[in-house]
Write a structure and sequence with these properties.
- The chain is mainly α and about 210 residues long.
- The protein has one domain: Methane Monooxygenase Hydroxylase, Chain G, domain 1 (Up-down Bundle), CATH 1.20.58.220.
- It is globular, with a radius of gyration of 19 Å.
- It starts with a helix and ends with a helix.
C-alpha cells in the first residue's frame, strides 16, 4: 500500500509543460512592458508611440493570462496546487497592469525623460528574469522552486525606490518632485506584486513538500 501511495503522489506531481509555457509567456509580455517603459524614460521612444505599444503588450498579456486560466481549469496534475498557480498568474497580470498605468501616468505628468526611474525599472526587469527562472523550475526541478522564488522575493525594487524617493525629496519641492514621487510609488507597487508572485510559488511548493 505504501509503495502505491508513493507512486500515486509521484504521478500527481508531474508538471504540465503547456501550463508552464503559458505562465512564462505572461512573464515575457510583462518583461516587454518593462523594456518599453525603460525606453520611454530614456527618451528613446515617444509618448504616443509608447502608449500604443503598451496597449498591444497588455492585450497580449491578457491573452496569455486567459490561456493560463483555461489550462488551469482542465489540468489535474502539477507540482504546485491550482489555487497557487492561479495566484501566481494573477500577480503577473497585476504587474503588467501597473506598468501600463505607469506609462499612462508618464504621459499625463509629462516628466520624461527622468533618470530617477531607470534604476527602479532595471530592478523590476531583473526580478522578472528571476521569476521566469523560478517558473521554469516547475517543469525542470520542482524541489528547487522555493529557493528560486526566494530570489524573486529579494528583489531590489523597494530599495531602489526608497533611494530615489529620498533623493527626489531632498530637492526643493515642486510639481516635478510630486509627480516623480507618484511615479516611483507606482513602481514600488510593481515590486509588491512581484513579491506576491514569489509567495504564490513558495506557498505552493511548501504544500507539496508535505
Amino acid at each position: 500500500m505504501g509503495m502505491w501511495s508513493t507512486v500515486g503522489r509521484s504521478l500527481t506531481r508531474r508538471p504540465d509543460n503547456v501550463l508552464v509555457r503559458h505562465l512564462r509567456n505572461q512573464v515575457a509580455a510583462t518583461s516587454e512592458g518593462v523594456q518599453l517603459a525603460l525606453a520611454l524614460v530614456r527618451d528613446e521612444v515617444g509618448l504616443d508611440d509608447a502608449r500604443g505599444r503598451m496597449a498591444v503588450i497588455e492585450h497580449r498579456g491578457d491573452e496569455h493570462r486567459s490561456a493560463t486560466v483555461n489550462r488551469l481549469a482542465t489540468a489535474f496534475a502539477n507540482p504546485i496546487d491550482r489555487e497557487d498557480l492561479f495566484r501566481l498568474s494573477r500577480s503577473i497580470d497585476d504587474v503588467l497592469d501597473n506598468l501600463h498605468d505607469f506609462v499612462r501616468e508618464l504621459a499625463l505628468f509629462e516628466v520624461v525623460p527622468d533618470p530617477r526611474l531607470i534604476g527602479v525599472l532595471g530592478a523590476i526587469a531583473d526580478a522578472l528574469g528571476d521569476l521566469d527562472a523560478a517558473i521554469t523550475m516547475i517543469a525542470v526541478d520542482p524541489t528547487a522552486i522555493r529557493e528560486a522564488s526566494l530570489a524573486v522575493r529579494k528583489n531590489e525594487v523597494r530599495r531602489r525606490y526608497q533611494e530615489e524617493l529620498a533623493a527626489a525629496l531632498s530637492e526643493p519641492i515642486g510639481p516635478h518632485t510630486l509627480k516623480t514621487r507618484e511615479l516611483l510609488r507606482r513602481l514600488d507597487v510593481v515590486g509588491l506584486r512581484l513579491g506576491e508572485a514569489a509567495d504564490a510559488l513558495a506557498d505552493g511548493a511548501m504544500k507539496r513538500s508535505h
